[in-house]
Design goal:
alpha+beta, Alpha-Beta Plaits, 38% helix
């Protein structure tokens, strides 16, 4: 398994609404076209209305690399910048969990 945790901070409330719409459109494509993407979850942060946290889990590094070159992901990466004031990315090394079938 290969994962990411990404924190996005939007510029303002209008940017957050536009970013959420972009995320929804992109998520539809990820669900439909990416079997190697195990989890792609987006969260609003309680008490911080401009922040979004993404939790992404991929079958393996190859699945992540396949995700990154998808047309819908490339469009997301290009469009998101106009809505954001900050991006923080953590790459995750999966140890254990519930709800995920993992072969070691």
């Amino acid at each position: 398994m290969f994962g990411l945790m990404v924190r996005f901070t939007c510029k303002d409330a209008a940017a957050a609404a536009a970013f959420d719409a972009l995320v929804a459109r992109t998520g539809e494509q990820i669900r439909a076209k990416e079997p190697g993407t195990v989890i792609y979850a987006v969260h609003r942060v309680d008490g911080r209305p401009l922040e979004r946290v993404f939790y992404e889990l991929y079958r393996d590094k190859n699945a992540f690399e396949a995700h990154e070159v998808q047309e819908h992901v490339r469009a997301f990466l290009a469009e998101r910048e106009q809505y954001l004031s900050a991006i923080e990315v953590d790459r995750l090394d999966f140890v254990s969990g519930k709800g995920v079938d993992v072969e070691y």
